Amino acid sequence: MNKGSFFTGQPIFNQVLGFIPRGQVKAIARSCGADRYCKSFKTYEHLVTMLYAILNRCDALREVTTGLLAWDRRIHHIGLKGHPRRSTLSDANKRRSEQVFEKIYFKLLSRYQSILPDSRNRSKKDNLYIFDSTSISLFQEILKASGLSCTDGKRKGGIKVHTLLHSAQDTPVMIRYSPAAQSDVTFLKEVQLRRGSVVVFDKGYCDYRTYNRFSRDGVTFVTRHRDRSIYRVIHQQEVTIYQQQQGVHSDCLISLGYTYLKKAVQVPARLITYTDSATQEQYQFLTNNTKLSPLTVANYYRQRWQIETFFKRIKQNYPLQYFLGDNENAIKIQIWCALIADLLLKVVRRGTRSKMSFSNVVALVRIHLMTYMDLKSFLNSPEQSLLRRAKQLEQENLGPLMFDT
Predict the structure, then answer these.
(1) Which of 353, 288, 300 is nearest to 124 (CA)?
(2) Residue 307 and residue 132: Cα distance in Å, rounded?
(3) For residue range 13-69, what is the model confidence (pLDDT) as tens digits?
(4) Are 33 and 99 a contacting pair, CB within 8 Å?
(5) Average of per-residue pLDDT values in the chain
(6) Residue 238: closest CA among 293, 275, 297
(7) Is residue 290 within 8 Å of residue 275, measured between CB atoms?
(8) Smallest Cα–Cα separation from 221: which of 237, 239, 198, 188?
(9) Which of 269, 182, 189, 289 is nearest to 229 (CA)?
């Protein structure tokens, strides 16, 4: 019987893993010495097991190991030589450096970055980057969290993920970790971008030295002005009638920083006062670009909300409430694997004509991880694919009839 394009000899999970070049993973592991003194559970097997835990939303080691045991011999299809034990996975999460998974993520990003931008969304500029952080709560004080202690005197830990997001690709191009109690502004100086780029960040990232470095490097920054910041107006620029109708109140060139201190850092910048027509809230934007229209600056900052949507999507679709380890290395490995899974599913979705939301794609892949069906055809028409599969299985179970009925 002709199975057509709806059926395949590999489960859906294996087709997702097909976007990971196994040779590159082995090369990265070799360069990092990640498989040294390791006989069986090597980096690739570790990566596959963690991706299974991420895609299947496993919250405990027992869920991972029993889930793989239930697949019996089918785990050979996904590149596992045997069923990992809980102690094996726990030790690997503790001993194998999270930097290996970081390099795997950026290697995959470099491989697929040309197909990630959505050509249908022309509003996303290829040179726009957004910088922000999000905190993930931990049930133990592995990393120091901000805020007060609980009523029983115990403190929960927290890890802060500092992220530089490429707007067009909707993927992180820089990730840094810190305890949740650490200040965000420390990591702004690590942002390195090519000339002509635009970086948008919140007003909490107040670092005048980095602002001046952006100007020297030809990088445009857009942020909000803090009320307590000291500045001096140098020149008041003209605001057109059209700009006033769109909500622009003033546009002036300023000098940020104290003037009576010789060692104080001063930043030549531009201050734009703008009122949002939808919310009627007033904002003051800072930028070092004197050529952009005030409305363009406001639109750049409006796109900062994209990174908040990204954080929400990662936390909702992948298991980041519970971690498969009570140490810092295990937590970072799980976050890296969540980002790898997110990147792979983006690549999968780009190769289909599916109009489903990304959350629906993640849910369908999770439910049908070990279904033997062509992934692309399945995502294009899930119901039709499943109906055809059920009809074929019914015919195979009945078999040919000897007599007509």
Answers:
(1) 300
(2) 7
(3) 999 999 999 999 999 999 999 888 888 889 999 999 999 999 999 999 999 999 888
(4) no
(5) 86
(6) 293
(7) no
(8) 198
(9) 269
